[in-house]
Amino acid sequence: MIRTETAPAPRRNLELFLLLLALVVAVGAQIITAAAMDAPIDEGYYVDGGIYAGVVLVFHIILRIRAKYADPFILPIVVTLNGLGIAMIHRIDLAGGDGSVADRQLLWSAVSMAFAMALLWFLQDHRRLRQLTYLSLVVGTVLLFLPMLPGIGMEINGARIWVNLGFASFQPSELAKIALGVFFAGFLANNRDLILLAGRKFGPLQFPRIQDLAPLMIGWLVAIGVLVVQTDLGNSIMFFGLFMAMIYVATSRLSWIIIGGLLVAVGGVLAWMFVPHVTARVDIWLNAFDEDIYSREFGGSEQVVQGIFGLANGGLTGTGLGSGMPNRVPLANSDMILAAFGEELGLIGLTAMLLLYLLLFSRFMRAGLGTRDAFGKLLAVGFAVMLVLQVFVVLGGITRVIPMTGLTAPFLAAGGSSLLGNWLIVALVLLISHAARRPIVVGPMVNASGDEASGIENPTTEAAEATASEDEAAAFQDEDEARSGTGGAR
Amino acid sequence: MSQLAVTVLQFGLLLLLWVLILSIVAAQSRDLMISKRSRAPQDESTRSGQGRRRRRESAAATAGAPAGHGGAAGAGGHSAAASGHPTQAEQAPAASAQRPRPRALVVVEGPATGTEVELGSAPIMLGRAQESTLVLVDDYASGKHARLFPQGSRWFIEDLGSTNGTWLGEEQLTRAATVEPGERIRIGKTVLELKA
Questions:
Q1: Cβ contact B50:A475 at 8 Å
Q2: Regions in chain A scoring below 50 on pLDDT
Q3: Nearest to residue A102, comparing CAs of A3, A34, A40, A158?
Q4: pTM of the entire structure?
Q5: What gap in Å lies between CA B35 and CA B43, rounded to an integer?
Q6: Which ipTM was obtained for this model?
């Protein structure tokens, strides 16, 4: 039995400390921007900073009440990234004229956090989502289909992935990825053994029976199919990667990765040959500096090339926040926001932000490792992979490692749907990490009255173990207590 | 604001960003130590004076010290390989004086219903593997699914990292737990009980 226990200390004070540091970074960045660009620092900055800090602190208090043992690092990391994003969008607003994008981003941040808080408050236990396995497949599919409905669907920049809500446009695929993540995790947690054990062998590879895998395949094919029809390249890559990663984690068979890699290769080549949208993207990627392609009026490589120039202009230390020219890049506040950061914060700053993503990924994985239920493990790992894939695809596109695909950097880029989706993911992972780090009470006679007299507040967990009340059981408790550093109560 | 001040602030922001990252990493050091800790748990529990429970055979060898319960109860020979320590045979009578020991393990539901296994002093392996003490013919059972082992007068069940888990009553096992006669141990479709 692999045991991965952490100290069952809540560590919420540590989170508060890190949050304050994160808020200083976030609000400070915005004010530095204004100072560097000679914009008047009026009360608007303090109001914005105050709103942001207020919502974040409410989130912190909700965690104290509802998920005391949740991971203390996730929230500060996300708050830093989100705050830096708002600052950079504001900075591009200042340079570009349209002054309302940053305000909208702040509003969406607050709304997203409110939804995340509500999810934390009302869901309480991520395992409840497991009951919604098939419902979430339906919900995810419907969400993916929404933009194709006439009337409410909208097409922006060649991709039909938007829904017009009247007061705002929304990208339902950001929520669909959560629903499909829940479905994949729930399905694999339920059927892992059938997929693993039943089926016949062809040489070294064992293939699962079709009926065991059918729902998964259907769900996945629908998702990919819809996205291909909508020419949403980035999201198709992400869903495919999510699917591969989760099935690999669930079965630990390397053959899945090999099969998936082959499928990607074949699909990529086919798409390159027959989908004009993809052909153009690959062309831009390979021949970005070609004169013709650069100056092509629609779908040229200007965006990528200007982004690279921006990165080069930034160099090691960057031009300083507010002193560069990131607004030369089209869509600098959404798709190309990492290039903007690369220019103004330099390699040092961009590395720091990538490290934040890496730390966030590691915390997601940690939550998955720590939790005891297979569903939670798969869900956390799925979200972690989603995050990393998204960052890789965005950054890879900007730095010409892979073709541009039109995903946005999580938490940074302007866009309410992406923010909402990612904050909901954060809430779910926080719940999983709470379940993972929550201490288990073995016997009622041990530590029944102290500060950590938990288990009683969550009577659903470990009730069977609580019956093991005699001295033998106490020995178990003692080892755990000694291990976790809180000291035995005997 | 002067250019110098702005530049200082801009660098200050970078510095702060890295301070934040370093504090996050530093605060995680406890998390990163886990592997070290779980590799040497026996030292801690020996020190705690409650050296009655051992995960590893090496620990069982060093834990000769009586811990005030049933004589040399520290010799927890319940590792997978060990199939009978002499010390356990000694401790058994002492313990049974206080409490009736469960006599047998009975399969009450599932394909092998009715099968009984005498409980001696040796641990019992449950699983699909042919070398198990009780071979479970159950698609939902893992090869080495769970282990039932005696300690003092009681029997404990421990999941061995099975795929589908072991359930005691309504709860899934996350660590070894005591089994009372009549409590339902569920592995896949098989339900087992101890009989006193």
A1: yes
A2: 1-7, 443-490
A3: A34
A4: 0.70
A5: 15
A6: 0.81
